[in-house]
Design a protein that fits this description.
By secondary structure, this protein is α/β, with parallel strands linked by helices. The protein folds into two domains: 190 residues, Periplasmic binding protein-like II (D-Maltodextrin-Binding Protein, domain 2, 3-Layer(aba) Sandwich); 133 residues, D-Maltodextrin-Binding Protein, domain 2, CATH 3.40.190. The chain is built from twelve helices and twelve strands. The strands form three sheets. The protein has a five-stranded mixed beta sheet with strand order 2-1-3-12-4. Helix 2 links the parallel strand 1 and strand 2. Helix 2 packs across helix 10, helix 6 runs parallel beside helix 7 and helix 9 packs across helix 11. The chain is elongated and about 65 Å long. The protein starts with a helix and ends with a helix. The relative contact order is 0.15.
């Protein structure tokens, strides 16, 4: 019996060695994975596997993430990486995953990244993340039935309002909007639900209003407008400008008339936090430089896979939304001539927080391209 046990252990060890030899032989060298705490670097030999966090299936993040991953893998050149887009619970999970080293790059909403970077709002600490590429705007507003009697954001007090899926972090941009209009988040009856079910809740009266949006035209808003007569709760113009001045992730955005059924006039909306690609502060500078360069040079291919890629352009890709850019990304944007300079002409990377975007209206055409 002892001899039988030794024999089993011997063949198990041989099998393990054979497996190790098989993987060592791939790509002419040892397969290389990410270093702890997000610190990755391009390997001298072998393959560097990079995990990109996206979001649950059904939203925009997984589609855009796949488009970026496919493009990076097709046009890697001498960079022997393999990028895989992976479904996650969304921005908050991605940010935590980057810092833990579970992911190397990820998609996030810039408003959620803003507060994570500072350890504010619902975050328990400062998360050392960096921006790589600013992408498509997220234009959202409170939608209600036309006969609800809700005419202003102040009227939402005491009402049942859907503010997004549980754990998604939407309250990080909903709460500032409410508070600047004189309404605390605790003063509404906040309901958590995805956008599709939120429209159903509006339809059957289970909710009085819902915060809906995305790329214009947003599918959930289109669905609501096609199902029943809707009203868009207006932003107070003075408050909207104050939000833009106070938070770098907010930007004015006018939705053209006739974008949504039953709404012939333009609506002065708000980009509540652009999608952006982020990484850990500890990620290797050369790696992020090469990733940024590859994304930029092949942005047309990303756009052909999903319209959000059209937002990777000269005016938008290096736009500051409240999270510092990674040095590797900054280096590339400077070489490409698209890095924004401060008013004094000094390099913007020394003090990113001072490079605040102008509070002007974003072009509706850009948002349509990002759909």
């Amino acid at each position: 019996m002892a001899r039988s046990l030794l024999r089993r252990r011997y063949f198990s060890a041989v099998a393990m060695l054979a497996t190790a030899a098989l993987f060592t032989g791939c790509n002419g060298g040892t397969t290389t994975g990410p270093a702890p705490e997000g610190g990755t670097s391009l390997p001298a030999g072998g393959t560097l596997f990079l995990s990109m966090g996206t979001a649950p299936i059904g939203g925009t993040f997984p589609i855009v993430g796949d488009a970026i991953a496919q493009t990076l893998n097709t046009h890697k050149g001498d960079n022997n990486w393999k990028v895989q887009a992976k479904g996650t619970k969304g921005s908050q999970a991605n940010i935590r995953g980057l810092v833990k080293g579970d992911q190397q790059i990820a998609l996030s909403n810039s408003a959620i990244s803003y507060f994570a970077f500072r350890g504010e709002s619902t975050w328990d600490q400062k998360y050392d993340i960096r921006a790589v590429v600013t992408m498509a705007p997220n234009v959202a507003m409170f939608v209600t039935k036309a006969d609800s009697g809700i005419k202003s954001i102040a009227d939402l007090k005491g009402k049942r309002v859907v503010i997004g899926p549980a754990g998604a972090g939407f309250e990080m941009f909903v709460a500032p909007i409410l508070e600047e209009h004189g309404v605390k988040l605790t003063e509404i009856n906040a309901v958590n639900a995805p956008q599709g079910p939120a429209v159903d809740m509006l339809a059957d009266g289970a909710a009085d209003a819902a915060f809906l949006g995305g790329a214009v035209p947003a599918a959930a808003i289109s669905q609501a407008c096609a199902s029943f007569e809707t009203s868009f709760v207006p932003f107070d113009p003075v408050v909207r400008q104050r939000l833009i001045d106070k938070y770098p992730f907010f930007h004015a955005f006018t939705i053209p008339g006739n974008t949504y059924q039953g709404h012939e006039t333009a609506f002065d909306g708000l980009n509540v936090g652009s999608m952006h690609l982020i990484t850990s502060a500890s990620a290797d500078e050369e790696l992020i430089y090469q990733l940024t360069k590859t994304i930029w040079e092949n942005r047309a291919e990303i756009a052909s896979k999903h319209g959000a890629g059209k937002a990777i352009n000269e005016k938008n890709a290096a736009r500051y939304t409240g999270t510092e850019f990674h040095p590797g990304a900054i280096r590339f944007y400077k070489e490409a001539g698209v890095w924004p300079e401060s008013e004094g002409g000094e390099s913007a990377d020394a003090a990113p927080a001072e490079v605040k975007p102008a509070a002007k209206e974003e072009k509706p055409a850009a948002e349509k391209a990002a759909e």
